[in-house]
From TrEMBL:
GO terms for cellular component: cytoplasm. The keyword Oxidoreductase applies. SUPFAM superfamilies: Thioredoxin-like. This is Glutathione-dependent peroxiredoxin. It catalyses: a hydroperoxide + 2 glutathione = an alcohol + glutathione disulfide + H2O. GO terms for biological process: cell redox homeostasis; cellular response to oxidative stress; hydrogen peroxide catabolic process. Its EC number is 1.11.1.27. It comes from Comamonas piscis. Thiol-specific peroxidase that catalyzes the reduction of hydrogen peroxide and organic hydroperoxides to water and alcohols, respectively. Plays a role in cell protection against oxidative stress by detoxifying peroxides.
Protein backbone atom coordinates (compact mmCIF):
# COMPACT_ATOMS: atom_id res chain seq x y z
CA UNK A 1 0.00 0.00 0.00
CA UNK A 2 1.18 3.52 -0.79
CA UNK A 3 2.46 5.42 2.23
CA UNK A 4 3.63 8.87 3.26
CA UNK A 5 6.87 9.68 1.43
CA UNK A 6 6.00 7.61 -1.65
CA UNK A 7 5.52 9.12 -5.10
CA UNK A 8 2.17 8.82 -6.80
CA UNK A 9 2.15 5.82 -9.13
CA UNK A 10 2.78 6.35 -12.82
CA UNK A 11 -0.67 5.98 -14.33
CA UNK A 12 -2.85 7.46 -17.02
CA UNK A 13 -6.24 8.69 -15.82
CA UNK A 14 -8.99 10.56 -17.60
CA UNK A 15 -11.47 13.32 -17.02
CA UNK A 16 -14.37 14.66 -19.02
CA UNK A 17 -13.77 18.19 -20.25
CA UNK A 18 -16.91 20.12 -21.23
CA UNK A 19 -15.14 23.26 -22.49
CA UNK A 20 -12.05 23.33 -24.70
CA UNK A 21 -8.97 25.02 -23.27
CA UNK A 22 -5.45 24.51 -21.95
CA UNK A 23 -4.74 22.01 -24.71
CA UNK A 24 -7.77 19.88 -23.80
CA UNK A 25 -10.35 18.90 -26.35
CA UNK A 26 -14.00 18.32 -25.54
CA UNK A 27 -14.83 14.92 -24.10
CA UNK A 28 -12.65 12.46 -22.21
CA UNK A 29 -9.03 13.55 -21.92
CA UNK A 30 -6.28 11.26 -20.73
CA UNK A 31 -3.42 12.63 -18.65
CA UNK A 32 -0.26 11.36 -17.04
CA UNK A 33 -0.53 11.53 -13.23
CA UNK A 34 3.20 12.12 -12.77
CA UNK A 35 3.25 15.08 -15.15
CA UNK A 36 -0.02 16.54 -13.85
CA UNK A 37 1.12 16.42 -10.21
CA UNK A 38 4.58 17.89 -10.81
CA UNK A 39 5.10 21.17 -8.98
CA UNK A 40 1.61 21.21 -7.46
CA UNK A 41 0.05 20.69 -4.08
CA UNK A 42 -2.99 18.46 -4.52
CA UNK A 43 -5.73 17.38 -2.14
CA UNK A 44 -6.65 14.03 -3.64
CA UNK A 45 -9.54 11.94 -2.41
CA UNK A 46 -10.98 8.71 -3.70
CA UNK A 47 -14.45 7.26 -3.39
CA UNK A 48 -15.92 3.81 -4.06
CA UNK A 49 -18.31 5.13 -6.70
CA UNK A 50 -19.87 8.14 -8.34
CA UNK A 51 -23.48 8.85 -7.41
CA UNK A 52 -23.32 6.52 -4.39
CA UNK A 53 -25.03 7.72 -1.18
CA UNK A 54 -22.14 8.71 1.13
CA UNK A 55 -20.00 9.92 -1.76
CA UNK A 56 -22.75 12.19 -3.13
CA UNK A 57 -24.25 13.38 0.14
CA UNK A 58 -21.10 13.93 2.22
CA UNK A 59 -17.72 13.22 0.68
CA UNK A 60 -17.66 15.22 -2.56
CA UNK A 61 -19.85 18.11 -1.29
CA UNK A 62 -17.40 18.83 1.53
CA UNK A 63 -14.58 19.41 -0.94
CA UNK A 64 -16.77 21.53 -3.23
CA UNK A 65 -17.86 23.71 -0.30
CA UNK A 66 -14.28 24.11 0.98
CA UNK A 67 -12.61 24.74 -2.41
CA UNK A 68 -11.70 28.35 -1.61
CA UNK A 69 -10.35 27.39 1.82
CA UNK A 70 -8.13 24.79 0.15
CA UNK A 71 -6.75 27.43 -2.23
CA UNK A 72 -6.10 29.75 0.73
CA UNK A 73 -4.19 26.89 2.41
CA UNK A 74 -1.88 26.56 -0.60
CA UNK A 75 -3.60 23.67 -2.38
CA UNK A 76 -3.43 24.13 -6.15
CA UNK A 77 -6.00 21.49 -7.11
CA UNK A 78 -8.50 19.09 -5.61
CA UNK A 79 -8.80 15.72 -7.34
CA UNK A 80 -11.72 13.33 -6.88
CA UNK A 81 -10.91 9.82 -8.12
CA UNK A 82 -13.24 6.90 -8.61
CA UNK A 83 -13.20 3.62 -10.49
CA UNK A 84 -15.69 5.00 -12.98
CA UNK A 85 -15.24 6.19 -16.55
CA UNK A 86 -14.67 9.84 -17.44
CA UNK A 87 -18.25 10.20 -18.74
CA UNK A 88 -19.74 9.14 -15.41
CA UNK A 89 -17.32 11.33 -13.47
CA UNK A 90 -18.17 14.28 -15.72
CA UNK A 91 -21.91 13.76 -15.19
CA UNK A 92 -21.43 13.43 -11.45
CA UNK A 93 -19.35 16.60 -11.40
CA UNK A 94 -22.03 18.48 -13.31
CA UNK A 95 -24.66 17.21 -10.85
CA UNK A 96 -22.52 18.28 -7.87
CA UNK A 97 -21.43 21.66 -9.36
CA UNK A 98 -17.70 20.90 -9.18
CA UNK A 99 -16.64 23.01 -12.18
CA UNK A 100 -13.59 25.09 -11.30
CA UNK A 101 -13.45 23.56 -7.82
CA UNK A 102 -12.77 19.81 -8.02
CA UNK A 103 -11.30 17.80 -10.88
CA UNK A 104 -13.46 14.71 -11.45
CA UNK A 105 -11.07 11.97 -12.50
CA UNK A 106 -11.95 8.54 -13.80
CA UNK A 107 -9.82 5.50 -13.00
CA UNK A 108 -11.95 3.31 -15.24
CA UNK A 109 -9.63 0.29 -15.22
CA UNK A 110 -8.67 0.72 -11.53
CA UNK A 111 -5.05 1.18 -12.61
CA UNK A 112 -4.37 3.88 -10.01
CA UNK A 113 -6.34 2.08 -7.30
CA UNK A 114 -4.36 -1.13 -7.90
CA UNK A 115 -1.02 0.69 -8.06
CA UNK A 116 -1.65 2.38 -4.71
CA UNK A 117 -2.87 -0.85 -3.12
CA UNK A 118 -6.02 0.99 -2.05
CA UNK A 119 -8.63 -1.24 -3.66
CA UNK A 120 -11.98 -2.31 -2.30
CA UNK A 121 -13.42 -5.63 -3.49
CA UNK A 122 -17.16 -5.18 -3.95
CA UNK A 123 -17.62 -8.25 -6.15
CA UNK A 124 -20.85 -9.97 -5.31
CA UNK A 125 -22.44 -6.60 -4.55
CA UNK A 126 -22.64 -5.61 -8.20
CA UNK A 127 -19.79 -3.10 -8.07
CA UNK A 128 -16.68 -5.18 -8.79
CA UNK A 129 -13.24 -3.90 -7.85
CA UNK A 130 -13.35 -0.30 -6.62
CA UNK A 131 -11.17 2.22 -4.85
CA UNK A 132 -11.12 2.37 -1.11
CA UNK A 133 -12.28 5.64 0.43
CA UNK A 134 -9.27 7.78 1.36
CA UNK A 135 -7.70 11.21 1.09
CA UNK A 136 -4.12 12.26 0.61
CA UNK A 137 -2.20 15.49 0.45
CA UNK A 138 0.35 15.40 -2.36
CA UNK A 139 3.21 17.85 -2.89
CA UNK A 140 5.16 17.71 -6.14
CA UNK A 141 3.99 14.14 -6.73
CA UNK A 142 4.86 12.85 -3.24
CA UNK A 143 2.37 11.79 -0.58
CA UNK A 144 2.75 13.94 2.56
CA UNK A 145 -0.50 12.92 4.31
CA UNK A 146 -2.63 9.79 3.89
CA UNK A 147 -5.99 9.07 5.51
CA UNK A 148 -7.45 5.66 4.69
CA UNK A 149 -10.95 4.76 5.83
CA UNK A 150 -11.88 1.46 7.40
CA UNK A 151 -14.49 -0.44 5.35
CA UNK A 152 -17.87 1.27 5.48
CA UNK A 153 -16.52 4.30 7.36
CA UNK A 154 -16.36 8.02 6.61
CA UNK A 155 -14.38 9.62 9.43
CA UNK A 156 -10.86 10.55 8.24
CA UNK A 157 -11.03 11.25 4.49
CA UNK A 158 -13.41 14.20 4.71
CA UNK A 159 -12.55 17.70 3.49
CA UNK A 160 -12.15 19.14 7.00
CA UNK A 161 -9.48 16.60 7.95
CA UNK A 162 -7.27 17.07 4.88
CA UNK A 163 -7.83 20.84 4.95
CA UNK A 164 -6.51 20.96 8.54
CA UNK A 165 -3.51 18.92 7.40
CA UNK A 166 -2.90 21.30 4.48
CA UNK A 167 -2.95 24.27 6.85
CA UNK A 168 -0.47 22.64 9.29
Amino acid sequence: MIKVGDSLPAATLSEFVAVEGNGCSLGPNAFDVTKEAAGKTIALFAVPGAFTPTCSAKHLPGYVEQAEAFKAAGVDEIWCLSVNDAFVMGAWGKDQHTDGKVRMIGDGDAVFAKATGLTLDLNGKGLGLRSNRYSMLVKDGKVVQLNVEAPGQFTVSDADTILAQAKA
